[in-house]
Amino acid sequence: MNDKHLTYADSGVDIEKEETTIRALTKDMTYKRTGLGAPLTGIGHYAGLIDFGEYALALATDGVGSKVVIANEMKRWNTVGIDCVAMNVNDLLAIGAEPISFVDYLALEKHDEGFAAQIGEGLRKGAEISRMSIVGGETATLPDIIKGFDLAGTCLGMVKKEDIITGEKVRVGDAIVGIPAAGVHSNGYTLVRKIIERSSYSYHDPLPSDPSTTIGDELLIPTRIYMEVLDVIRECDVHGLAHITGSGLLKLKRVTELGFDFDDPIEPNDIFSFLQDEGNIDGLEMYRTFNMGMGFVIILPPEQAVKAAEMTGGKIVGRIVESGIKVSSLVIV
Fold first, then answer.
1. What is the structure's pLDDT at 34?
2. Contact present, 67 and 80 (Cβ < 8 Å)
3. Can you tell me whether residue 225 is helix, strand or coil?
4. pTM for the whole thing?
5. What SS3 state is found at 293?
6. pLDDT-based confidence at 16, cuts 50/70/90?
7. Would you give the distance in Å from CA 269 to the centre of its chain?
């Protein structure tokens, strides 16, 4: 373990600078179509919504990120396709939309035998879990730009207009149901890789808490796809939804300006304790970077929280308060 507290910014990803870049990128995106296809939401929520008569069409785009570097190191690429699908589908679910189709984009340095088949295997499995079709995509060979490969995609979903969930119904006193994550999912991997590089471990070493698996295999566990959220939406009065990804619990600010008090949080997976110890990372930075064992959040009236928890394998982790985000005694923001 290194004595210096490592941060996400130290690893090369500064969340505040990223937000500044996003604001600069989007500030002139002012043209809005009218009529059929007109936008129903502004830029900045989990997915974009456009008018399609009785329905809204939902669009999300995302990629796997630097997790692909670990896949290359382990020479195992059959799970990152699931991650690619999951990162998009979960963002659609976070506004109440059902995924219906997907297109992928694979940029690579060179063509290696067996590689593409494994990528396709993961994409197929992710699409099956999500109950949607992959209808196309693009492959680009870019040796002057790409070192290794990059995998991204775009997902189309639909939702009846009256069923859109953007967080405006969230109220103080609402219950928060947290749904467990499968592991690190697909965010914070620039920091993850920096931790491993600075440690005495390699990706091929056994995970100390579970010697039956390697650190690399643990880090390649694919992102959970939360399709059961659609069942909760059908049976409960859901006020808000959140997919916990990059920037950790700070993502909750997309849902409401109200606060979150996590007084009974989900226990983080063992991999997070390992990363925190090896990187000498403080608790605040962990919750501002990773999902810390909770990959999705449902906000709804307290009397329906037990049902939602049972339907998803989750638990009641806290309640909505006036302001701030707090995990036990740790103040996130």
1. 85
2. yes
3. coil
4. 0.93
5. coil
6. confident
7. 16
Which alpha helices (DSSP H) does 41-170 contain, by range?
Answer: 67-74, 80-93, 115-130
Question: At the topology level of CATH, where does 175-331 sit?
Answer: Phosphoribosyl-aminoimidazole Synthetase; Chain A, domain 2 (3.90.650)
Region 32-163: CATH code: 3.30.1330.10
Contacts of 240 (CB under 8 A, 6+ apart): 165, 167, 169, 170, 174, 255, 256, 297, 298, 299, 300
Q: What is the DSSP letter of 246?
A: T
Instruction: Annotate 155-215 with DSSP letters as a single string.
Output: EEEEEEGGG---STT--TT-EEEEEE-SSSTTSSHHHHHHHHHHSS--TTSEETTEEEEEH
Structural contact between residues 92 and 163, judged by C-beta atoms closer than 8 angstroms: no
**pLDDT over 60 (residue 182):** yes
Residue 64 corresponds to which tokens in the numbers above? 């796997």
d(CA 118, CA 139): 15
Say what angle helices 67-74 and 80-93 make with each other, to 10 degrees: 160
CA distance 296 to 244: 6
Asked if 57 contacts 157 with a C-beta cutoff of 8 angstroms, the reply is: yes
Two structure tokens written together for 104: 């992928």
d(CA 226, CA 250): 20
Closest by CA to 292, choosing from 255, 233, 251, 256, is 251
Give the CA-trace dihedral at 34, 39, 44, 47, to 10 degrees: -160
Please say if the pLDDT value at position 88 is more than 60.
Answer: yes
Q: Would you kindly state where each structural domain of the chain is located, as residue ranges?
A: 32-163, 175-331
149-167 in b/e burial notation, b at 16+ Cβ within 10 A?
Answer: bbbbbebbbbbeeeebbbb
Q: In what order do the strands lie in the sheet with 48-52?
A: 48-52, 55-63, 149-160, 98-108, 133-141
